[in-house]
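Figure caption, in words: inputs first, then the predicted bound structure.
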Amino acid sequence: MADQSKIEWTDATWNPVRGCTKISPGCSHCYAETFAERFRGTAGHPYEFGFDLRLVPEKLADPLKWRSSKMIFVNSMSDLFHADVPDDYICSVAEMMVRASWHTYQVLTKRAERMASLLRSKLRFAAEQPHIWWGVSVEDRQHGLPRIDSLRSAPAKIRFLSVEPLLENIGPMDLSGIDWVIVGGESGRGARSMNVEWVRQLRSDCHRQNVAFFFKQWGGVNKAKTGRLLDGRTYDEFPKRLTHDSDETVKQPRGRSIKRLRS
Ligand code: SF4
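Bound structure (iron/sulfur cluster present):
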């Protein structure tokens, strides 16, 4: 587990699975693959086997060791619902999230149908836990919109979309049942460009439907240069979080700050 993350919308990452395979156009320049393959063959390195999928059971208990409350992106270097991850192992990951309930977990997948099916069955015990947020990636209409429908069909307290890399105009969108939308452009070598009007459309969809909107980045070859301002300001909205901390405030949808709920 990395106790700090450079990803703008989370605090930390936890990878009880490593590696993945590509499934849709959003995977073309997968940052996790690029990172993992750099270490293929490096004996003793966590990515000694590159981006080959493998379970990492010795990492399962990591959230218990982390005593202060964090937002944790689950499997930033994989996809928990990949076909090669057994149901029982996914359940073990979910059991840990239920147990270490002082954290907020962000579970993001491109395998939305499998996630939805498990949330209705073997993961029912974790589905509606308010500290576990379930999300799908949306890069275009063809692959993204069916994932949103799958997510909406599943029981969940907080549902979110990671619209990154945004590859085409996908709005106007029906965001019923969705609590949070993250939008971002692709970064790195060969990055595909994102049109400002596509982003404005999604911002407008979110605000019209009272959904928290987080603008992560413009991306491009040098993402530090393009930054994350949209029409002169940042958008760092989040859904309401449960926390064990008392009397702290967190930024809430549409820039309002409200008291955190006690769990
Ligand atoms: S699903 Fe995610 S982790 Fe897997 S290849 Fe695609 S972008 Fe990479």
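Residues 87-99 form the longest helix (13 residues).
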